[in-house]
User: Fold this.
Amino acid sequence: MQKRSSLQPRPTKASMLRQQGGGTGQQQQQQQPKSRPVNVAGTSPVPQQQQQPTVNKRNSKAQASEGIRAFMAAHRAVAAQRKKTSDSSSSMDKHQERPKIRVMTGAERYSYDDSDPFGMQNDKASLKLQTVIHQAKSSGKLNLSNRNLDRVPDEVWSMYHVDPNKIVVDFSSTDDAWYDSTELNKLIAADNAITEIDERIGQEFGALTLVDFRNNKLEKLPESLRQLHQLTVLHLSHNQIEIFPEQIYDLGARLRDLDLSHNLLTAVPQSIERLSQLEILHLNDNKIENVADGIGQLVKLRKLYLNENQLVELPALHHLQKWTKLEEMHLFKNQLRVLFRGDSARSSIVVALPLLSRLDVRQNSLTQIVEGEKVEISLPKLKELLLAYNQLSQDANGLEQVMAKAPSVQTLDLSSNLFSEIPDVVLTLQGLRRLDVSANHLRMLRPDLGKLEHLAVLSWEGNPLRSAPRNVSMAELIESLRSKLVLAEDQEKEGVPAANPGDNSDKEILSTGVSSSPASPSAAAAAASSTPQSPRPSGTLDLSRKQLSDLEPSMLSGHNPATLQLQHNMLETIPIQPLSSCQLTTTLVTLKLDHNRLKELTLTTTTDNNVFHSLKTLSITNSRISQLSVANTTEQQQMVFPQLVELDISINALTSLPENLRDYLPSLRTLKANTNRIDKIMPQTLDGLEIIDLGNNDIAYLPPEIGRIGTIRELMLYGNRFRIPRPAVLDQGTGAVLEFLKRRLGS
Assistant:
């Protein structure tokens, strides 16, 4: 038996792979390798071929070494421990939130409170204040408004204090450091209950340009306010200041906006002249009785508010001649008796306020505008002159003088005064747009107000007019005045004496409400020759909401109205016979038949008694009208409405309009047919019209030829079915629509 060798060779991966590759595919029995001969004599042993051990399976892999297995086991143990720790942490976080540690760098490393050096307290109000202060350091604006404060917190006054022993400079931080702070230039503490401003305001915040302590309880100001030499805006309204603060005078080098309104001031001292750079001065809603002459030295003043005080007079006019930059002066609700006061020591005074655009002197006790015979004041840029609620009359001294030197006035308020007639100087204001003469003693409205081409608003209510306008819109009233003026001019040219403005001829103008342009002189003469003579109509007869299905002549007897109202009844036809029997067909100017049951409107007749010779305005809205018809007869026909200027047939069931509409309504200027079922429109129908409303119909096509109608001033077409022009063009107005249609024609 061969002796087993004590040394057994270790199988390698390479030898095992060679053995697997050279096998016969059959499983072999594993045999022990033969031992090598022992080196007895110390010589090298002779190598002997050994049979390598076989493995159980031909495709099995070699096993990893002990070192590799130990290394991988160690890593698996570490990974398992990490997973176990992570799961444990997640479970704890669900039940208990870990405290957050604030990492403070830069300027935040300095603590204002040694008891809480890391800012871990949860005092919400304190934290909010610190946040506001922090933001102010970077923006330069500190807003403490509406915090119910009775004083400014000490943290504010010490916001820029830095303890050298607590500064940590961290150049890796992205936060704002103490050396990056911006000087405070705006301090706002409005809407609180602050009773006193600390003296530290001038010592700590010398760069302030705006200070706002509105709506507090201040009675005085700190002396250190004088040190704010950069201050330009100071707002102290709605406080309890009784004496004009002297500290403000030292801010005159830069102060431009000063608001001391809604305080308890009683006087404006002479020292106010030291505020030489002041542009806006609010002193309204105080108890000021006297204003020193020094206010006239504010050469840069643009807006002055002295309203709602107890002023009896202003400084003499020559003290105000340096107000060359003044734009607005508000003096309403005082006790002024004279607006511009002269000086008896001076022979003549000439003052110009070249930029003044608004002068408000309402609710005073003015009896005259200028005091003194040789006083001249020029207001070339004045746009608004408000003189309401005074005691002025057409004889008030200086009224015509001031208006004559104010040619640019657009708004003139003379309401609630003592005028018995409108001053002649008003007619010289060619740019006038709004005139208010309500609540005076006027007996008539002057027809020559029609000379004011731009007049758009005329308020006359509250006057004892002999024939007050009723049921007349403002535009209709103004247009009627212009029509009356044109008629008077035509009569003057023909040698006919013009009617006295005070006679009954004004009653027609003041009560009819004709809103159309006047007819030509030849047409007027022809109409006059064909119209039977009758008493001049006046006033309005209101028979609306009477449930009338027919009109009885007895209802009309004894009346000669210019306007007849029959709205909200049950009339099925126009009651021509009753009107004709009372001769109202020859005198009626306005007829309103809205909300009745008329099914058609006949435009022609064979009987002269059925002709409305003077009718200018006809309104038949919401009355079920389905067509505008013409009498079907071979007899000679007459026009029912030869003088009709405005026709309103909106909210009916019309499907079309006559192509030759102007043949039956030759004087028509305004056609309103909104909210019908009109599906087609012809250019001939609109020829000669000025105002056309065809909105909310079914018009599918808009003829481009309409663009050539030169009389159209207003064209409303919204709510129809046509797609051209697009709504964007319609929104631009009549001019854009007509221009679009012209381009469609290639003209």
Summary: The mean pLDDT is 79. The two ends are 132 Å apart (CA to CA).
